[in-house]
Design a protein that fits this description.
471 residues; alpha/beta; 6-stranded antiparallel beta sheet; 13 helices
Length: 471
């Protein structure tokens, strides 16, 4: 079976791909940026990759005509002015290009939309479903609420709140009810529906056995983590204050916090469990979903994370556009130092950021992250997905990985912090010498003033860091 998978670099797509391969399918992955797509060698014979942007119809001409089924796993929680229009245009472009193929079945993962008054985010998902239903193929829509798994947006936001705040004074929407589902169960439903005619031209709600409000979910997380937490719900927090509350405490961006607050005021409870009976799938409880997530974290088996999505960075670019570090009109801080143990140095580089920190003057890095956060940037709270593994497209604190090749001994990072310019940080191990280069391309006079203002700090930080890395 030949299956087209959109969103293959996203949170769900990365987890669905191995299941499709294990079930014997040939998978064509449609991605916007090939540089962010990585496939294990064992999958290479069954996976092909094509590049295309769903918002641009002409970029989708490489979709093969002989596909049997497709998954539509593309959506964002952006709050841009043209957000809804882009979502509908993407769905319409995809529907039209599928009309030129042999596709029989399209599966769309949406959100639970049973409330009469939907948030803009949930309304857009409903409108996308309507647009996709106009195709000549059979459409199956799976509607999920809160998805719980290592690296999922919901899990990481709950984790940030519970682990950082012993006492929470929270907005009233914490009393809103929802029906969380484990990410492993979402993958089971997505794979079971494939080309099953019993699901054609229907929509199904999928959820776990527990109906909880957000306060109960936070307290349940605290129970699993053996933490004592106190939560007080007050009715006076406006949506804007609620958004700022999420933004400053969790790793989300402000625009995502706004979308989340709007959606969290809407109850997301399943209508029935018909699909459970159809496929004999019994979703696990909220507590078991949490335990499974922590098992993955403990074993460092996190397959995907929402933090790696470009929408979290407030940036929207192709990695290939920035992988060549410019020289003209740029300021550089280049340092070189010998190392007696290059293998140890390389391991230190590959652990940089996140839990490990930056090896030197971490308090200054934290201060820079705080300043970035209060100015509307991402700060340091994103951390990193893996402690020891790095792949192109990953986030490391307020950096984006542009290139990571351990055999070459080269790591190239691009800054996603708020800056009056653009910045790169490169580590390159050349034999028994480490070359560390910081590059800054200023924008106007403000950018030049910024560079000279931080130059003393750069000298202290970068000099200390390369010494620690080569020690």
């Amino acid at each position: 079976m030949k299956v087209l998978l959109t969103g293959a670099t996203g949170y769900i797509g990365k987890r669905l791909l191995p299941t499709l391969i294990q079930n014997g399918h040939q998978v064509v992955c449609l991605v916007r940026d090939k540089d962010r797509f990585h496939v294990p060698e064992s999958f290479e014979l069954r996976v092909s990759c094509i590049e295309g942007d769903l918002t641009i119809a002409d970029s989708l001409t490489s979709i093969p005509a002989d596909i049997d089924a497709a998954y539509y796993l593309v959506h964002s929680m952006s709050t841009d002015k043209n957000y809804h229009e882009k979502e509908i245009r993407s769905a319409a472009n995809f529907r039209k290009v599928l009309g030129q193929t042999a596709v029989q079945h399209l599966i769309y993962l949406s959100g639970i939309i049973n409330d009469d008054n939907l948030s803009p985010h949930l309304q857009s998902r409903k409108d996308v479903e309507i647009e996709l239903s106009k195709g000549a193929y059979a459409l199956t829509t799976l509607r999920a609420g809160i998805i719980i798994g290592s690296g999922s947006a919901s899990f990481e936001i709950i984790r940030d709140l519970v682990e950082k705040l012993p006492v929470m004074v929270t907005p009233q929407w914490l009393n809103t009810k929802c029906q969380p589902i484990a990410v492993a169960d979402v993958i089971k439903f997505l794979s079971a529906c494939l080309l099953d005619s019993r699901t054609y031209n229907q929509n199904f709600d999928i959820g776990g056995p527990d109906v909880l409000n957000y306060k109960q979910m936070l307290l349940g997380f605290a129970f699993i983590r053996r933490l004592k937490r106190y939560i007080y719900v007050i009715p006076i927090m406006t949506p804007r204050l609620s958004s700022y509350w999420l933004y400053f405490i969790t790793s989300t961006s402000y625009k995502l916090a706004t979308a989340l607050v709007d959606s969290m005021k809407v109850e997301v409870i399943c209508r029935n469990s018909y699909l459970n009976e159809l496929f004999s799938i019994q979703p696990v409880s909220y507590y078991d979903a949490l335990r499974a997530a922590f098992t993955e974290i403990k074993d460092e088996q996190i397959i995907s994370s929402w933090k790696d999505a470009l929408v979290i960075s407030n940036h929207d670019f192709k990695i290939s556009d920035f992988i060549e570090v410019p020289t003209y009109g740029c300021y550089t801080d280049k340092r070189q130092m010998p190392t007696d143990k290059p293998v140890v140095t390389l391991e230190k580089i590959w652990r940089i950021g996140g839990f490990t920190g930056w090896h030197f003057a971490n308090w200054l890095w934290q201060l820079r992250g705080f300043l970035d956060r209060i100015s509307g940037g991402v700060g340091l709270r994103r951390g990193r997905t893996h402690r020891t593994q790095i792949a192109t497209g990953d986030v490391i604190d307020f950096w984006r990985v542009l290139y990571a090749n351990k055999e070459e001994g080269r790591l190239l990072l691009y800054a996603e912090m708020k800056l009056p310019g653009e910045a790169w940080l490169e580590f390159k191990l050349n034999g028994k010498h480490l070359i560390q280069t910081a590059t800054f391309r200023p924008k106007g006079l403000l950018g030049r003033l910024y560079w000279y203002a931080v130059l003393p700090f750069h000298h202290y930080i970068f000099n200390g860091m390369i010494k620690k890395l080569t020690k």
